[in-house]
């Protein structure tokens, strides 16, 4: 079980910009926000990532670097980015199932056409610049995701007040 305050697992994914994004190389002012999404087949992911795209400037203003990651292959990730109009949102793809498990994500099997054979369910993590987990929200289903405005408000409060991670015991 991945707990707040513990070191985050290594994470390396290819991005649509043609780079290999590594968590260990990130150096945000306050946090790295990692949004694990199910993939192209998920309409709720579309809504979440479109909202995230609209709020990118607010996250950046709070010292937060953002990436959205799925297990989709490049062609599906490109299609999501284009069809969902994700603009400047950095998208990572081809996350391996063993990496999803390292992060504690739930793994689902395909139940309908258009879904990959296996894919990760949603997860949202705030990682401190030192690589430790600050916050995590892991879901076994596609619905009821943490509201991004609430997250932005929490980040402002945390940074202003030096609020420690909770749930570490």
UniProtKB/TrEMBL annotation:
It comes from the Bacteria. Residues 2-160 form the Thioredoxin domain. It holds the Pfam family AhpC-TSA. InterPro entries: AhpC/TSA, Thioredoxin-like_sf, Thioredoxin_domain. One of its GO terms (molecular function) is oxidoreductase activity. This is Peroxiredoxin. It comes from Modicisalibacter xianhensis.
